[in-house]
Design brief:
The protein has 249 residues and is α+β, with helices and mostly antiparallel strands. It has helices at residues 3-8, 13-25, 30-37, 41-53, 74-100, 112-126, 148-157, 170-173, 228-244, and strands at 28-29, 57-60, 67-70, 106-111, 130-135, 162-166, 185-187, 197-201, 204-208, 211-212, 215-216, 221-226. The chain has nine helices and twelve strands. The longest helix is centred in the middle third of the chain and has 27 residues, at 74-100. The radius of gyration is 25 Å and the shape is elongated.
Amino acid sequence: MYSEIFQQLGLAMNEAKIYETLLKEGESSVGNISVKSKVHRRNVYDSLHRLIEKGLVFEILQSNENRFKAVDPRKLMELIQEKEESLSRIMPDLEKLYKGTPHKEEVYVYRGHEGWKNYMRDMIRIGEDAYFIGAKGAWLDYRVRGFFPQFIKETKKKKMKFYHLFDNEVKRQFAHILPFVGKNYKFLPKEYSTPGAIDIFGDHVNILSGIKIGGFVEEFAFTVIVNQQVADAFRIWFKFMWDFCPSKI
């Protein structure tokens, strides 16, 4: 039930199964842990040793057979905080390494909601105004909605401005996205709505497909072009559309 989440937090699959078993069963022998977790007894010993090293399990010494018990699950929060603190200490150096690497013109593909989060991180990192053609409010898709408050906070900190040309349907079907994007938005005429969109910021042009009002289709991907001249050209085309698009349609 929870083992997948434990794996996302850094536990190996067997460690996650055993830790969840100990939370449910309480103090247990190796044999009982093996049966309940469905992990082979030989592998249980190795996993328990690693869990003890991580401070998530402790051993109870007994004369006949030692037993094991899970530590309070709040220890997981401590482990995450320790990792965050370690990462925070080296982050300035990592950013220097990243920014010091020359970025060539390139084209690549982001896939799924984790790819979408990377796109939002790209926008924050570049820190320039962004322009959106055929926007649909996909920032509030349920799969990335949790990342959105942090995104807005960072863009406000960098004083970034957004300029949206929304599909006309957003006005009626998804108007609650509008307070988040500022005052710089217009709506395309109804006949120009599409299942695609184009986002431009810095030297990036993102071409999206599989996008719908308020989110994405189940499996989606989008193409990222990193090229200053191409991005500048798209900004000029955006300005043409913006100038000829009425404020209210």
